[in-house]
Design goal:
elongated, 84% helix, mainly alpha
Length: 148
């Protein structure tokens, strides 16, 4: 489906998903670069008997997780942009779980910054479940059934 046929709310949701993917990729690169710097620091501090292996492991793990998040967001952007109903459902389940986790984390830590990370998924959910958007996903689902 081309962008000109896609409802505006779906297009905005897809753009937000691509932005999330790009930010996750950028943060993954920062984590990997940080891990490389930690490796350099480890070599320097080895003479002093200090070890920062744990920090390097955490940074590499964070980088890998963020890379996976970037790929998943890109897949959702692509599939939702094409009107795939299953992608919308799976995104909804994962986003709701993420929002619940964010709310629980924010409530326990009391930090307002945690709440901010739930805003984009909430906006995306609203956009992809608007009546105008739902008609598009239904139309795509019906056309896939007819061609099968």
């Amino acid at each position: 489906m081309s962008n000109s046929l896609r409802p505006t709310p779906v297009t905005v949701a897809v753009v937000l998903l691509w932005i999330q993917a790009a930010l996750a990729l950028l943060l993954a690169l920062v984590a990997f670069a940080g891990a490389a710097n930690v490796t350099a620091l480890t070599e320097q501090s080895a003479a002093h008997g200090e070890s920062v292996d744990h920090l390097r492991t955490v940074m590499v793990t964070a980088g890998v997780v963020l890379l996976i998040v970037a790929v998943i967001n890109a897949l959702f952007a692509s599939r939702i942009g094409r009107g795939h109903h299953t992608a919308r459902l799976v995104y909804t389940v994962l986003a709701v779980l993420g929002i619940v986790g964010t709310v629980a984390s924010a409530a326990s830590s009391g930090q307002a910054t945690h709440w901010a990370s739930a805003i984009i998924p909430i906006v995306i959910l609203i956009l992809i479940w608007l009546p105008e958007s739902s008609k598009e996903f239904f139309r795509q689902s019906r056309s896939a059934d007819v061609t099968s």
